[in-house]
Amino acid sequence: MRATTDYPHYGCIGIGAGPANLSLASLLYPHTEISNLFLDRKITFDWHDGQQLPDTTLQVSILKDLVSLADPTSGFSFLSYLHARGRIYHFINAQFDAVPRREFRNYLQWAAARNENIVFGENVLSVDFDDTFVVRTDRRTVTADNLSVGVGNRPWVPPLAADLPDEHQYHVSDVITRGQDLVGRRVCVVGGGQSGAETFLDLISRSPRQRPKTVSWVTRRRNYFPIDDSPFTNDFYTPSYSDHHFGLSSAQRAEFNANQVLSSDGISESTLRQIYQRVYGLRFIDGAEDLVTLLPHREVVRVRRSDDGCEVELAAGDRVDRIDCDVIIWATGFRAAPMDFLDPIRTRLCREGNEFRIDADFAVQWDGPADHNIFVHNAAEQQRGLADRNLSLIAWRSQRIVNRLRGVRGTDQLPSFLDWAATTNAEPVAASVLP
Q1: First-to-last CA distance in the chain?
Q2: Among 10, 51, 269, 383, which is least packed by CB within 10 angstroms?
Q3: Are 123 and 73 in contact (CB under 8 A)?
Q4: How far apart are CA 21 and CA 408, in angstroms?
Q5: C-alpha 306: how far from its chain's center?
Q6: What backbone phi and psi angles, to 5 degrees, belong to 394?
């Protein structure tokens, strides 16, 4: 083995270049004293490109971009993007109620393209430690004092669908490529969040010559619930609450995440309104009474291939409903992508539940030197709350990591108006190392 000093060395290497690490790369950019390199296995940048339906919008403020809430003067802000593209006045005059999601995706691509420290088309194969982190990719070997892991999530489909042929099902992340050839077919959308709602609305809004024969919308929630976007609920998506949540016991954290899920995973009221109005028009104006079936409070318990498509069994209390369809679109969310590249050092990393145990600066606790850190993004929902996988705090989290790397203390924003209940960590979770 060559000495690690023979390899190019960086102060920080990022694995993955989605919004989380892109935020960190943008905030690190002016700090040239910290050499950095961000690697992503994708050939080019994309951000949910397979489900970027027309007219869909963000559920967060325009200010919650990569950098603005940490450094409003940064040249990587959404406002800087609009100015650089020469469209800032047009954007203002358009009076969008929310940022178009495809525009935000283009902003992210712009930020990645103007940062020469971000490299696409390079896959990280393994990370080891030999006085410093040794990162091997499919192109080269490099070393680093610190790592930042932001590999994002992968589409999730329930295991009960494993035996159903692909011709009868796909995840909502593929709706752009696979959702166009549905004319005259019976479609079942499963999932009561924003993605399910947007997909359902798109299907029932198509012209009679382009839309499916029938569209069913299934969710295990009791209704199609709106996102809770009220002011005091949004205080859950502030740095002060994130730090408060971090100090709670594991039981308190889990209870909060379960009780407040609609503050993150509900449906925008504007989308719900459009759906209701469209269903009204189809049934009472167009006379298309059989096109739409709405099925809340049903749990999908079985799917199987049938003679003319597939059958979906739904548990509704003690009753089992069955619907026939040709295609199931699973709007069932995402799960954390695997971090197999960490396998060489995995036994040295502490765990808390099914997450890596982190400190207050999002660094994984491990048995290595204190001045060598592995920071993780979107990987601590249990410890940091629902905001950890939301866009709301990515700039703040990245700034906290930048401050740690620079050895400085940042200026915190004012605390919430709310006086959070005192922390009662009655169930401390001891750090553990995987066997």
Answers
A1: 27
A2: 269
A3: no
A4: 20
A5: 35
A6: -65, -35
Burial 251-289 (b: 16+ CB within 10 A, else e): ebbeebbeeeebbbbbbbeebbebbeebbeebeeeeebe
Do the Cβ atoms of 199 and 189 come closer than 8 Å? yes
Is the model's pLDDT at 3 over the cut of 60? no
What the block records as the tokens of 314 is 């739904």
Backbone phi, then psi, for 114, in 5-degree steps?
A: -90, 5
Q: How many CB atoms lie within 10 A of CB 202?
A: 18
**Max CA-CA distance within the chain?**
75
Specify the amino acid at residue 176: I
- pLDDT, mean of residues 134-139: 98
CA distance 6 to 291: 66
Residue 246, token pair as written in the block:
């971090």
pLDDT in tens, 341-385: 999 999 999 999 999 999 999 999 999 999 999 999 999 999 999
Report percent pLDDT > 90 for the chain: 93
Q: Which amino acid does the sequence have at 224?
A: Y
Quick: pLDDT tens for 32-69: 999 999 999 999 999 999 999 999 999 999 999 999 99
Q: Residue 401: which of 3, 14, 24, 18 has the closest Cα? A: 24
pTM of the shown model = 0.94
Give percent of the chain above pLDDT 70: 96
**Residue among 67, 60, 39, 56 nearest 100 (CA):** 56
